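The material for today's practical consists of a large collection of protein records. Backbone structure tokens are a discrete shorthand for how the chain folds in space. An example says more than a description, so a record of this kind follows:
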Amino acid sequence: MIFIILLSSFTAMARFHKLKVKDIRRETVDCVSVSFEVPANLKEEYRFLPGQYLTIKIPVTGEDIRRSYSICSGPFEEEELRVAIKKVKGGKGSGFLNESLKNGQEIEVMIPMGNFHSPLSASNRKKYFLFAGGSGITPMLSIIKAVLRIEQGSELTLFYGNLDPAATIFKRELDSIAASSVNRLHLHYIYENAPVDHHPLCKGRMDVDRVRAIFDAFSGNGLNHEFFICGPGPMMDNVMKILQEKKTPATQTHIEYFTAAVQADTVKTNAGPSLSSRVTVSLYGIETTFELSSHGKSVLDAALDAGVDVPFACKGAVCCTCRGRLLEGKVKMDQNFALTESEVEAGYILTCQSHPQTAVLRIDYDA
């Protein structure tokens, strides 16, 4: 039997539901993983693809804090929906989830979103190279589990950077999976503070020279390879630089940003004369119309001001939560790290980054 996962079958409009916290597990000193209890009537909505994420409304007093966290559970072999949250210094959301969240507590969780995946098929014979740093391992763990389950003829090689072994999220689980998947999952831990007997190639940071050496040692001819990258910005930039040096096709490269690569205040959209646009957005079949200047707020912020409960999370162009489909008119996006080329060609926009360029705009959040 040929098993193929079709990406289009998981398309759904972003919406929140209240889910009960099922289990909280301490993974490292500054990281917990949290699983949610999904009622039977919501099982279909919370089906997910490996590499996708959940957006959570975090109940910090007086604020509507929304944060997105990648799913680390596998989509097939586990009756579990679990994310990992690494505590960020000064982070209100990650601090609450690491220190104050309780088992049994109800919390609003959006259905799975994200494009950090490629189609899986039992007929594939691929080599996957995964580059992760810190909490960037979270989506990789889900991808590893899915590929090992579905693609018996494929192999995965993980390069995972951390400060030291104690800071390595999911190390015990990764070691266990590798032990049961000999010759199919190859682990390479890269430590800044490495043990004395650690492989020389895996000591230090994943700078350009180290990444280049890793590619030369492990990637071979690059045919039928898939590359997944998730972690700190500099690490991802270094991996992308080497992929470009090797002339790796964009179709074989997948990158997941946790934060915007360019701060919003450095982006200059307001060039040329100002234009007033009549914007109509449709959500749950209800249309709302408002006026918006091309030099003003984003479509998302203007819609929120107009009382529309539009979905959003990062507001930094790195998630697809605020995605809408442009039915009429044109917009200019400040940044886009989330939508694929095919999605843009199909008319989808990130409304948190979009500014009108025509006198009339019609945007459908239900599409």
In short: The chain has seven helices and 18 strands. The first strand starts at residue 16 and ends at 28.
